[in-house]
Specification:
Low-confidence stretches: 1-40
Largest sheet: 5 strands, parallel
Number of strands: 15
Mean pLDDT: 88
Helix content: 25-40%
Distance between the termini: 40 Å
Bound molecules: 2-acetamido-2-deoxy-beta-D-glucopyranose
Number of helices: 16
Number of domains: 2
Shape: globular
Radius of gyration: 23 Å
Strand content: 5-15%
Length: about 475
Amino acid sequence: MLSGGFFLCFCCLDCESLLHNKYVFAGVSIPFFHKDRLHNQEDYLLGCIKGKSFKKTCPKDYPTKHNPTNQNSNICPSYFRWIHEDLKPWKEKGITKDMLEKAKKTANFKLVIVKGKVYVEKYRKSIQTRDFFTLWGILQILRLYPGKLPDLELMFDCEDKPVVPLDKFHGPNAKPPPLFRYCSDQWSLDIVFPDWSFWGWAETNIKPWENTLKDIKEGNKKTNWKDRVPYAYWKGNPYVSPTRQNLLQCNVTLENDWNTLLYIQDWVQESNQGYKKSSLGDQCTHRYKIYIEGWAWSVSEKYILACDSMTLFVRSNYHDFFIRGMVPLQHYWPIRDNSKCTSLKFAVEWGNNHTHKAQEIGEAGSKFIQEDLDMNNVYNYMFHLLNEYAKLLMFKPTIPRGAVEFCPEKLLSCTNGNKRMFMEESMVKVPSDSNPCTIPPPYDPLSLQEFLERKANSTKQVEIWEDEYWQIKEGAIV
Ligand SMILES: *[C@@H]1O[C@H](CO)[C@@H](O)[C@H](O)[C@H]1NC(C)=O
Ligand SMILES: *[C@@H]1O[C@H](CO)[C@@H](O)[C@H](O)[C@H]1NC(C)=O
Ligand SMILES: *[C@@H]1O[C@H](CO)[C@@H](O)[C@H](O)[C@H]1NC(C)=O
């Protein structure tokens, strides 16, 4: 859900009141910017390309070899198998220069890696500092695994919604443009990549993932599961999408107790109060936490799932890179999107009747996030995705004329404030002492189908329980 703010802003400029003077990105609202201010907002990446700091040169003595002492290598988490699925459209015929150039249509920048050095050709301004932090993240893999990334060229689009429709590019002669972005859906071929928030979301003061995760783990210790409020909890900006506005109906009232507590995030107020109330480590106080997408996927997903509370996952359209590996009833509880209140009420009541089970699901979801999605695995995912992608290129990557070489030193030298703080905090300090984990093989079509069927079955099972519950309840009323 993240997102989308950009569109939102333009179409909603005259309905400011609807937005409560806030902009929402990725499901989190940030103070509303006037259109002019938006355009005048500093473009960090361009500033870095054109600014004074451009004079800052990248060091020549970067390590180019990686010789870890630990030669063992584990198998990566199973969601890494989706890397093969995402790249499948190019598996047979590869990626030509022409296909890559077609992806330029919406891309914010082209990234080129040649001999371990990173070059960027910038095409258009991104929302906030998304492009800047994404580039920062990519530079960190080169520090973690020096000399290991192959030469490549790729197009990156920092907007929210996928734009490469599957139905336009299928069949044996299809030449889909390979385009990287933060989320996709089942009707699109966009290639999913970790979003910027793993290195911090400066505009909402959300710290880099590694430390946020530590805060949440600490927060989890503060309240035992059983002592948590036995309600479903959600806090966010409802004005990014109709489905979130629809959720608001489920809040507890004197007439209807849907077992659900909903709160509207007010970033203006929180920003004025120094974000004291939005600390993510302090938000693990309820037994059940609701995840609901917004304009597209939501950055909030990993924070919600990490809480040890059972996540009530409202059926969603968009996926980021890790959620496809998670399974309903194992890692989260599925919630209908077309009858949210009845679904939520049942889920909470079920959980309060089966506390051990509910706690187990909550903890399994959090374990997935804390282990399979720790920063090391985020880097591993990026590494393997880029590596597999590079194998498909049918041309020799070359440094584009006019492209600018980037290194962490250069990016650091053109930032200040919490941006700089987050970058220093999330910088990879030393190369990894082991090799990247080993990527699991692709799913064979049968086992993929089985996996998807198992997920669908679990969801179906919950819906059957739910229907039975409501039938009996309604029968009793009559
Ligand atoms: C939902 O209900 C709670 C408890 O009555 C209240 O504090 C909260 O403001 C309500 N949320 C919304 C969005 O109205
Ligand atoms: C929870 O337990 C109560 C009391 O046994 C029962 O009436 C209710 O139907 C149960 N609800 C669910 C969802 O399991
Ligand atoms: C899903 O449910 C159907 C019908 O109940 C069953 O035949 C099938 O074996 C299940 N599939 C999996 C993978 O569990």
